[in-house]
Amino acid sequence: MQRYIVKRLLQGTLILFLVSIIVFLLGRQIGDPVALLLPEYSTEEDRIRLTEQLGLDKSLPEQYAIFIWNALQGDLGNSIRGAREPALDLVLERVPASLMLASIAVFISLLIGIPLGVLAAVKRGSLLDTTARVLALLGQATPVFLLAIMGMYIFSVQLGWFPTSGYGRPEQFVLPVLTMSCFMVAAFLRLTRASMLEVVDSEYIKLARIKGLSERNVIWKHALRNSLIPVLTFMGTIFGRMISGAVIVETIFAWPGIGRLAYDAVMQRNYPVLQAVVLFIATSFLVINLLVDILYAFIDPRIRYSQ
Amino acid sequence: MTEAVLETKDIKKYFPVIKGILFSKTTGWVKAVDGVDLYIGTGETLGLVGESGCGKTTIAKLLLMLEKLTDGSIIFRGRDLKEFTREDVRQYRKSVQAVFQNPLSSLDPRMKVGSIISEPLIVDRTLDRKGVKDRVTTVLEAVGLDPRSAKAYPQEFSGGQKQRIAIARALASDPQLIILDEPISSQDVSIRAQLMNLLKDLQDSMGVSFLFIAHDLATVRYLSDRINVMYLGKIVECTNREDLYTNPLHPYTKALLSASLPHDPDSRREGDVLSGEVPSPLNPPTGCRFHTRCSQAMPECSQTDPVFKEVQPGHSVACLLYQ
Amino acid sequence: MQLSLSAKIIVVTGLVIILVLAVIAIFAPLIAPYDPTIGELSERLKPPCWQEGGSRDHILGTDTLGRDVLSRLIYGTRTSLTVAVIAILIAGSIGSLLGITAGYLGGWVDTVIMRLTDLAFSFPTILLALVLAFVLGPSFFNIILVISLVLWVEYARMARGEALKIRGMDYVALAQVAGCSKIRIMLRHILPNVASSLIVLATLQVGMVIVLESSLSFLGVGVPPPDPDWGSMVAGGRSYIFSAWWLSAVPGVAIVITVLSFNLLGDTLTEYINPSLRRQGGW
Ligand SMILES: Nc1ncnc2c1ncn2[C@@H]1O[C@H](COP(=O)(O)OP(=O)(O)OP(=O)(O)O)[C@@H](O)[C@H]1O
Ligand code: SF4
Ligand SMILES: [Mg+2]
């Protein structure tokens, strides 16, 4: 076990190293940062001083070493727009809003998706099953941004129930959370239904039935518990989609999270902030993946490593 | 005996048993083939018989270079396979072909019969297109199929015809040796005799050697010149055909023989019937591997591993009764 | 296998819609009444013809720059389908080859490729697109690149799984006996036997590509303006949601219908042609 964790840690470090190189080159790719940073009317002297200050007169590997050294101390440079705050601070400031949005959305999706999936599987072919299927198909066919705009049009423009944007008051949560939940509900529903169908037909459940356990007990306790494994696996891979969803949803609803921050950074060509966002996301991505993998290895080593 | 096409000297194949998924460890070895000597003469058929799981297919795969030897050597026309250059391997590929048990799995469903048969010729590149086409026609006719079959897909043929296609492919490169791994056991009884006759005719007309693998003695009888009986990775008895059927020495051979003659109660001797499960090759019994099922087992059988040796002229056995 | 009646209806409807879309995409210049990129400012924000104030001249109205919405919609079909076809061709070929290689060769090659798929599978696509757009600027090439980077994974996984099965078939062993090289075995024996599953997968993925592509364009990191694209049309109508709902609604409906058609067709085909490939959904 320890060897495995160490191995995965080394792998993670390697990936992070590669990401950091890409992120570093990102900053060099966009042209002359000095020109970007300097105020409009500045002298040649200012130029040279800033070039030296940023270390841009050194060789590329040296620059990278400086970049990493600073990054390890939490210094990812300053934003080149607005109040020139440290980029990392900007990112960390935005984390709670994103985390809040994501966790509520996941919670709601699980709450809706799993019971619906179980019911659809138990009452296979019923009206409920068909309705669930249509909803899942529609959910797949509707891009998140379209859903957001439709929600906005119906609930804000037509009905006036919820505001179109903002963060803080409870009613401002409704539309972003709903939008974020939609695709996950569809996914959880499909997964739960499929694995329920498989488990319900298995010997194990037949045995439970024969033993005379009540139907309700069999379905909701024994079958469900066994069908949750694929759902868990899916949870492990959901991070990327959440970030993608967050960029769109946060951008549309003006939600002050890291998705929106990334979008703004790109639009304003604010490379230190983009670097910080990417590094932050890559790191959390690797950490989460590592934790999930270790969790799996404890629960059941076969889930991931055998085909 | 004629000059050898192919010989094996003490070949072994051990498969590792790996436990654990994250931290894999080899916890033991399946000794699928454990020191086997074979001798296949030119134009002759060597029979290889043994129950399921005794390592017959593994031997076939070793000879076909589909598996790597754990130990021992395979000698083709006097030269060890280990010393082969690329060109030698290419020649060997042309010279040694195979027909497997299940024609459904042997014929690529996405290839036309013509392409299937000509594949060995096409990768060999010595024949031009015309030559390849002619050769396909020749071998299709040789196995009793219409040359127009070349344009069809294998799914359009019956089981027996599929096996004929597989044989045609094995013949295409004009090999010196064909390894037949239970070529008829998946067929209906009525088809079996036809296929056996076909194989015999082909051998007579082409002078090719066969290694004929089967799990019962009845099947190998018709074709084989000499027969090896195998048990749990080892050869236990080897002699020529007549001798084996009239004068079997090893208790296992006797048991197999009586199993293959169910309609003749007189020839079935008491106690010769095989009973019990074949032990796992992962943990073969100590001493003589057959002692757990042998009707003539003696106390020392579970201690001493019998040597495989010639006890009568041209007749070798591995059994403590004869040592 | 026999299709049930409802499945037949679905397949036929889906096919008809897809055919119509293909025709529209191919003959866009002949069908579109106006140039999709040039607008008449005096004609701006005209509602569709059935709305009050709409006219027959612009059946689906005009946008903020006075461009004909119908014409942009028609050319947008072309954009979406072109991206889908190119991206699927690229990702499909690369993914399948990698998957077949991983499955057939096994060993460390397999480990490396599978680790890569794990990574790509859970990577935030949109963020990647943002970064690439940042570096390269939004472009057609950019979308194809990003989408291919996401798509190849499914092909690789599926091709690997199938290759693992086929690797054990006797005809593969016999090909080796005949002296075929590893490359020949992969191309001549494994690939053709995986092909039908790969094609069904491609149908299943068209919808996903259209969703992705329109999302990228919506964010302004996809098809660069003024080229017509459904995603950027929705984005363009966003600020006029109070006054000119059709600007977003029309391309939105187009996206949903197209994606739905491809998904239904793909799902049904999967069910009947290759049930083993059925996505975990099962429906
Ligand atoms: N690739 C492998 N890995 C591990 N064990 C193997 C492998 N191939 C074969 N074995 C084991 O080696 C032993 C011999 O197998 P083999 O297929 O050679 O038997 P066989 O005599 O051909 O049997 P059958 O009559 O069923 O074809 C079996 O116990 C089998 O489980
Ligand atoms: S050695 Fe003993 S156990 Fe083995 S076959 Fe001979 S008599 Fe039987
Ligand atoms: Mg066998």
Defining traits:
heterotrimer, B: 323 residues, alpha/beta, Rossmann fold, 8-stranded mixed beta sheet, 4-stranded antiparallel beta sheet, 10 helices, 31% helix, globular, C: 283 residues, mainly alpha, MetI-like fold, 70% helix, elongated, disordered C terminus, binds adenosine-5'-triphosphate, binds iron/sulfur cluster, binds magnesium ion
Can you walk through the features of this model?
The complex is a heterotrimer of chains A (307), B (323) and C (283). By secondary structure, chain A is mainly alpha-helical. Chain A has helices spanning 2-29, 33-37, 44-53, 60-72, 87-122, 127-141, 144-158, 170-200, 203-210, 215-252, 258-267, 271-299, 302-305. In chain A, helix 5 (87-122) packs antiparallel against helix 10 (215-252), helix 5 (87-122) crosses helix 12 and helix 6 (127-141) packs across helix 8. Chain B is an alpha/beta fold and 323 residues long. Helix content of chain B is 31%, strand content 25%. Chain B contains ten helices and twelve strands. In chain B, the strands form two sheets. Chain B has an eight-stranded mixed β-sheet, with helices on both faces. A four-stranded antiparallel β-sheet of chain B has the order 2-1-4-5. With 283 residues, chain C is an all-alpha fold. Chain C is built from ten helices and no strands. Chain C has helices at 5-26, 28-31, 69-105, 107-121, 125-136, 140-167, 170-177, 182-218, 230-237, 246-273. The longest helix of chain C is centred in the N-terminal third of the chain and has 37 residues, at 69-105. The relative contact order of chain C is 0.14. Classes of the chains: A mainly alpha (307), B alpha/beta (323), C mainly alpha (283). Chains in contact: A-B, A-C, B-C. The complex binds adenosine-5'-triphosphate (ATP), iron/sulfur cluster and magnesium ion.
